[in-house]
Amino acid sequence: PTVDNVMGMLRPLFCTEQLNYASEQGSGGSIFATVAIDPGFRDIYRRLAATDSPWDWFHNDNIRVPDDGSPAVHQVPIRGWADVTFQNSLVSGRVVSAEQALRARALDWTNPAYSSFRCNLWNEAYERYQSSPPDFGGATRVLNAAGPVFEDIMRLGEHQLGFGDEFLSLVDASPEALSRLETAISEGTIESASCETDGFCLVDLQSFGDLLQTHFATIDNVEGARAELTSMRDRRICHLSAEVATEQLRFMEAIESGEVITRFMNAPALPAIDCE
Fold it and tell me: Left (φ > 0), alpha (ψ -120 to 50) or beta: where does 64 sit?
């Protein structure tokens, strides 16, 4: 295996390779739940024997949107099905475990379509490997090399993001929250952290499912849901419409270094959003 082989396999767990878009159905009233919940979570939970779960986000395909007289929401960027399908193939092929996929996607999980924090973990690891390649432990196949490399990607500064039987739920990936997170890990106080007040906490399968349910319930059939979905859509469109330097992109060999281009050049016709 090579660095590019292994890192290319793992990238869709952390970064966005493809986007889909969701709109309120018909004249309004419902929208795919994947606008709020990573569509890969349901498959992961099924693999981890949670098929009898009580959560609405697990069983319901749609979020109900009360009609408040405002325009229906259209073109909300969501995580692409190509990425989800590839993630499932990684788990099915035992390139990574379902638990590892869950740990990656639980980072900045309120931003399922794309997360600068999550993708930067991959970017930083890839940059490290240019001067200091990872130890594949004698593995002769990508299948065997990917697991250890995944664990090395899951690093915040000098701290590994592995916590035994629990895993990290990162709700807030702001610089301030990440600074608090690093402090909590280094001082050994992360066990007492609260997702509600600190923006991060340690969870197990049940408690993380409960967090997803709480998030789902703040939008599903709730007054003001359309305004929240509109705000969510606008933030995401502004992100994907932003111009970035080519060194921030994955495929840049054929592009002049330093050129500034649109992040997702194949985006469809999207609503006009004021991103200033």
Answer: beta
| The dihedral sign for the CA sequence 20, 12, 114, 129 | negative
Q: Tally Cβ neighbours within 10 Å of residue 141.
A: 11
Tell me if 147 sits within 8 A of 4, measured CB to CB. Answer: no
- Which two three-digit tokens encode residue 23? 């709109």
Helix (H) / strand (E) containing 230 = helix 225-241
Asked if 97 contacts 64 with a C-beta cutoff of 8 angstroms, the reply is: no
Written as one letter, the residue type at 88 is: N
pLDDT in tens, 52-80: 788 999 999 999 999 989 999 999 999 99
- CA gap 125, 10 in Å, rounded: 11
Asked whether the beta carbons of 174 and 124 are under 8 A apart, the reply is no
Q: 3-class SS at 115? A: coil
Q: Which residues contact 55 (CB under 8 A, 6 or more apart)?
A: 209, 210, 212, 213, 216
Is the CB of residue 150 less than 8 Å from the CB of residue 100? yes
Per the structure block, which two tokens stand in for 214?
């709480």
Question: Residue 33: what residue type?
Answer: A
State the pTM of this model. Answer: 0.88
